[in-house]
Amino acid sequence: MTEGERLQKFLARAGVASRRGAETVIESGRVAVNGTVVTQPGTRVAAGDVVAVDGKPVLPPEGHAYFVLNKPAGYVTTMDDPQGRATVADLFPETSRRLFSVGRLDRDTTGLLLLTDDGELAHRLMHPRFHVRKTYVAEVDGVPDDADLRALARGVTLDDGPTKPAEVELVAEGAGVATVRLTIAEGRKRQVRRMLSHVGHPVRALTRVAFGPLTLGTLEEGATRTLSAAEVAALRDAAGLSGQGEA
Ligand code: URA
Q1: CA distances from 188 to 69, 75, 139, 153 (A)
Q2: Domain 5-57 carries which CATH code?
Q3: Which of 58, 130, 131, 147 is most buried, judged by most C-beta within 10 A?
Q4: Per residue in 56-79, pLDDT tens?
Q5: How far apart are CA 9 and CA 19, in angstroms?
Q6: C-beta 193 within 6 A of ligand 1
Q7: At the top level of CATH, which class does the domain 133-211 belong to?
Q8: Is 106 in the pocket of ligand 1 (CB under 6 A)?
């Protein structure tokens, strides 16, 4: 999206209506920018602004789409489940894009999930070579002691091999329960749950709070937002794509 583009032009380019038709759509109060109804066709929109018509997000025709979802528990990370279970696609605004998730969260894990139609960026972000860091907050059974925390930080040996060094912090402790913050640069299946079980502290609840340069911020559970241009640039940087092509 061009910086500061007029709303009716944006809608016309996105195929909502002709430019004249888009003016009518705007004037009739059917268009919202970042959640606020806008009735002036000349209103300018920029990259990162969320434009919706009748409550449905409209994506610009060119460029890629990037969304963050705060995934609730109980949803499978897939856009289509043959078994008919609830999926993250159910939480997602309908768009004409073929979005897919960058990596997965277990059905019972909550938190930050990136969805995009940018295959190259997604591929790189998931590739071990780029060591994209993911931060999780886990509520666990029991209180890990210093030896447990050191073991997690150094690496523990799971059935599929040793884990790479991680950052670990005991955030809170209570009666028979604790909160641990863990940052890993790998993405093996159920890795955080397996690491914590390995040191004798099974996970009760797990949430991802950061993915590379992205953080959840104040996004509510079940809600989505589009990435800002700065966030897309930071992701491209994390994937070794900075300075190449679009930002
Ligand atoms: N590690 C896990 O164990 N589960 C997730 O969903 C993500 C990381």
Answers
A1: 21, 19, 19, 16
A2: 3.10.290.10
A3: 58
A4: 888 766 678 899 999 999 999 998
A5: 6
A6: yes
A7: alpha beta
A8: yes
